[in-house]
Amino acid sequence: MTAESLSKERLRLWLRMLRVTRQVESELRERLRTEHDSTLPRFDVMAALYAAEEGLKMNELSKRLRVSNGNVTGIIDRLVEDGAVERIAIEGDRRATRVCLTSTGRESFRAMAVEHERWINALFEGVTEEDAHHIGELLHRLPAASKDASLS
Q1: pTM of this prediction?
Q2: Distance CA 88, CA 97 (A)
Q3: Which of 26, 73, 136, 139 has an alpha carbon 20 to 30 Å from 130's alpha carbon atom?
Q4: Helices (DSSP H) in the chain: which residue ranges?
Q5: What whole-number distance in Å separates Cα of residue 52 and Cα of residue 31?
Q6: Can you tell me the distance from the alpha carbon of 96 to that of 34, in angstroms, rounded to the nearest whole number?
Q7: At 6, is the pLDDT very low, low, confident or very high (cuts 50, 70, 90)?
């Protein structure tokens, strides 16, 4: 294989990955909207808070989700209004608050997470367990390789 054909094959791979990702994401967005009156960003915030039982500072949450504080603040405001999240003052730091899921929020997320897993399973029904493992292993190579690669 020549360097040029390898480059073209990698480009085709990227476009295929992007197309599949967009299709799956679109389907998840629609199902969250219609079946849970929710959004994918809201689901992501709740997932991060579900994993951190003690809650997270807003800046920690933003870092985990790789989004701005402003993006997270709007979602948290709505989750607080809905009774799914509570803000807790941090002793000794009047400017910072910790946010965590309420019991209602945990139950709501758990229900969405079960559905989410079922949807993903259905969307990838043509992929065997062995294939899923192999594809996952191959994809693990990408971030390490891209750290060293120059994009210029």
Answers
A1: 0.85
A2: 5
A3: 26
A4: 3-36, 40-51, 58-65, 69-81, 103-123, 129-148
A5: 25
A6: 35
A7: very high
